[in-house]
Design goal:
The chain is mostly helical.
Length: about 110
């Protein structure tokens, strides 16, 4: 079993590694011309993330309303918010909030 100080050190090390991994692409690519591959990924990744989230949401859906109703509500809210606001962040946060709220109400 880890002591409190060992646990705190572990959390700090993991947080530092996570931060370094997230900031590294920005530091390494600063000042360079935009590469075609990165432009393509920047355009395609938001749609890819949405597809993965929809697939994950529909994974455990059965015929019980407590499973399919939150999924339909969340996906519908995400699509509606995206059509209305054209904001990936608002769509993801809003759709997730609707999904969680519907899951809690029906669960």
């Amino acid at each position: 079993m880890l002591t409190n100080s060992q646990l705190a050190l572990t959390v700090v090390v993991v947080a530092a590694i996570t931060f370094a991994c997230r900031i590294a692409p920005f530091v390494l690519l600063r000042g360079r011309a935009r590469m075609p591959l990165l432009g393509f990924l920047g355009d395609a990744m938001p749609l890819g993330v949405m597809i993965v989230l929809v697939a994950y949401t529909l994974d455990g859906v059965s015929t019980a309303p407590s499973t399919w109703l939150p999924a339909v509500a969340g996906i519908g809210a995400t699509a509606g918010l995206h059509v209305w606001r054209r904001s990936m962040g608002a769509s993801l946060v809003g759709g997730t909030a609707v999904y969680v709220a519907a899951s809690l109400l029906l669960g």
